[in-house]
Every structure is written in structure tokens, then in C-alpha cells.
Amino acid sequence: MYRNEIPETKLLPRGTNAITAIGSPIVSRGTFKATIRWPTGYNSNSKSINTTFHVLQNLKQPILSKKTQKALGMLPAGYPHESINAITKEEQRKDPGSIFFPHLMASVVINPTEERKKEDLKKLTEEFPRIFDGVCRPMVGPACHFKLKEGAIPMAIRGSCPVAGPLMPRLKKELDQLEEQNIIRKVTEPTAWVHPIVIAAKKDGDIRVCRFYDPQR
Questions:
Q1: 197-201 and 46-56: which strand pairing?
Q2: Whole domain around residue 202: which residue ranges?
Q3: Residue 188: Cβ within 10 Å count
């Protein structure tokens, strides 16, 4: 580009020892000083700076450094951090968050207090009690079908994972609830696919039944 556009411009024998993102060296042919002008958008004015241009081998188009872009006002001084240019009255939002949770999205709070968190959670659970009643229900829509990979070899454990005696009543209660909610169903005959379960304790003292899929263990 230098040879085609400004071949008469004298280059200074100063380059840069830089490399590309893949580690290849960037060959510099020299540098020259020039003025860059950039329209600021205010009263058709423009901002200009005097800077050093590096003529690099095989560079197909000019590239401005981040420092130069900041000096021209192309990028905020604090980039990549966000900056506020203007504050205007916000129009009514139509995003899903504002539609379904207007009382939560009406005012965004940074670093809310524990009291605010509890208040928001209370409003949310009161507005949607069916979601937070602890009962799992079938999802709306057609049934989901899993197609097994051809030639897949079933994995079956030889014995069940041990469960501590004091947890057995809670485990039976949890399994009964899952069966009542049609999440699982009892199998009374041998099957090729068997996975162990892991019991995870909840903060409220209840338990969560998890399946363990690692075939190495």
C-alpha cells in the first residue's frame, strides 16, 4: 500500500520488533510521521493527532493502534471498560426479564443487601408459587426421544453403591416422591443399562439423588 499510495514519502530507518499472534516476525520497512484527522461528530469538527506510522511488509490495509484510537476519540479513554456518554429517560422495556419480573427489573441494584435479596426472593416465590413448590412436573411439549448410538455397549454395575443406614429412610422417601411425580419408574426385571446413584445433602437437611455416569468408576 505504501508503494502504491505514497512512495515519495521518505522512510526513517526505525522499525518495530514485533510478532504476529502465531509467532511469525513482523518485518518493518521503516517509519514516517503524519497527521491523522477523525470527525468527532460535533458541529462537523474533526480531531487530529500527529503520530508515527510503521510500514510493515505484506500488510494489506492500515491498522490503528488502540492508543491512537483513544487519542482520536474512536474509543473511550477507559476502554475496554464501559463509559456513560449520556443519560436519557428509558422507554418501557419489552424484554422477557422485564415482562415476567417487572418488580425485579424496575430498578437495578448493584451489590444488593441481604434484606433486599430476601425481599426479591419472597416476591418471586409468591408470584410464581407453582414453580417453587418443590414439585417437578412434566415439561410442556412433545415427548423427548433419545436415539442410542449404533453399536453402543451398555454399562452395568455389579452392585449398588453403599448408602449409609441413617440415610435409607430419606432415600426411600425421595425415590417414592420421584416415582409419584413420574420422573422415574420402578424396574422389576433385569436391564442392560444400570447406573449407580450418589446421595448429595442439601442445606435444609434433605437429600438429592444424582446419577453417576462415569464408567471408569
A1: unpaired
A2: 165-211
A3: 4
* Whether residue 98 sits in one domain with residue 68: no
Question: How far is Cα 69 from Cα 79, in angstroms, rounded to an integer?
Answer: 10
| Cα separation of the two ends of the chain | 62
Return the percent helix, strand and coil in the chain, to nearest 5: 25, 20, 60
149 within a domain of the structure (yes/no): no
Report the distance separating Cα 60 and Cα 58, nearest Å. Answer: 6
Predicted TM-score of the model (pTM): 0.39
Low-confidence ranges of the chain (pLDDT < 50): 217
Answer whether residue 150 is part of any domain. no
Q: What is the pLDDT of residues 52-80, one digit of tens each?
A: 888 888 877 788 888 888 888 888 777 77
Helix spans in the chain (H)? 2-5, 66-72, 96-100, 102-105, 114-127, 168-180
Distances (CA, A) of 102 to 61, 87, 107, 113, 124: 48, 21, 9, 19, 10
Asked whether residue 157 is assigned to any structural domain, the reply reads no
If you ran DSSP here, which 8-state letter would residue 94 be given? -
